[in-house]
Design brief:
mainly alpha, elongated
Length: 281
């Protein structure tokens, strides 16, 4: 009797009807956990694409390991990123770079190609695709597949919203130099310089091209800002010394000589200087 009264009371209060509706899927069933999540979503902004965000954090760690030449640790973190989000193209691109460093060209090729496939599909953006195309293009250049490399790099540069076009112009210039295309390389380096005026590699490469064209004054003007900065290298200082010598500037030559010997005393350039192996000899 008491059970019947209890059931009738539930019906009157609507509790049993709500329970039946929940079980049949006629209305939503809310657990305390779901209610708490709903309140959290109402008070804060949910993280967009949480899986990709988690994968990005693991890939950032993988990239840091890669930059420190810790390839095994980088590979582990890249794998962890893909376990979170198997469709993350940048993770496969980094794996391609790791294989490239290990001279495993077949595995690198496969990694880059899969990365390109994923980067060409949503939710990847044009900038994501450009990043992969840049890495793949540089890999192809290292394999002396210059035409394919330049195609990938130019496609990367052409992608809208790509913020590292200067880097790709620089890579394209280096690749064109390796292919013996000095005129095209100059154009690429100048495009890179317009986007990144302090890029040390670009300034050095343009100065080398000017020096090879017997234009020491133009080469020195291009190189001067670099050698006066903290980005000066043994190569740029050695070139600066040769330019000062060609332009009969003994004071500048002594200054750069002192800088080279102090900053890079064990470099091959310092040894060449000590032995007087100038380019014009």
């Amino acid at each position: 009797m008491n059970g019947r009264l209890g059931a009738l009371q539930l019906i009157k209060t609507g509790g049993l009807l709500a329970l039946v509706g929940c079980l049949l899927g006629l209305q939503a069933c809310h657990s305390p956990r779901q209610d708490a999540q709903a309140r959290l979503d109402a008070l804060t902004t949910p993280e967009p694409d949480a899986l990709r965000q988690r994968a990005m954090r693991r890939l950032a760690l993988a990239s840091a390991y890669f930059e420190q030449n810790q390839s095994d640790a980088a590979m582990q973190e890249a794998r962890a990123a893909l376990q979170i989000d198997p469709t993350y193209p940048q993770a496969f691109s980094l794996i391609g770079l790791i294989h490239q460093r290990a001279n495993a060209s077949v595995l690198a090729q496969q990694s880059f190609e899969h990365a390109l496939q994923l980067a060409s599909q949503p939710p990847s953006t044009s900038a994501d695709l450009a990043d992969v195309q840049h890495n793949y293009g540089w890999f192809l250049c290292q394999q002396d597949r210059f035409d394919m490399a330049q195609t990938q790099l130019m496609q990367a540069i052409a992608q809208p919203n790509y913020r590292q076009a200067g880097k790709s112009w620089m890579a394209l210039g280096v690749c064109q130099l390796r292919a013996g295309q000095k005129m095209q390389a100059r154009g690429s380096f100048e495009a890179a310089l317009a986007l990144e005026p302090t890029n040390p590699v670009v300034r050095y490469q343009l100065a080398v091209l000017d020096w090879q064209n017997n234009d020491a004054s133009r080469a020195q003007a291009m190189l001067g800002a670099l050698n006066s900065s903290t980005q000066a290298s043994a190569e740029s200082l050695w070139l600066g010394i040769q330019l000062a010598r060609a332009l009969a500037q003994p004071q500048e030559q002594r200054r750069l000589t002192q800088q080279l010997n102090q900053s890079f005393p064990n470099s091959t350039q310092a040894l060449a200087l000590a032995q007087g192996k100038f380019q014009d000899q």
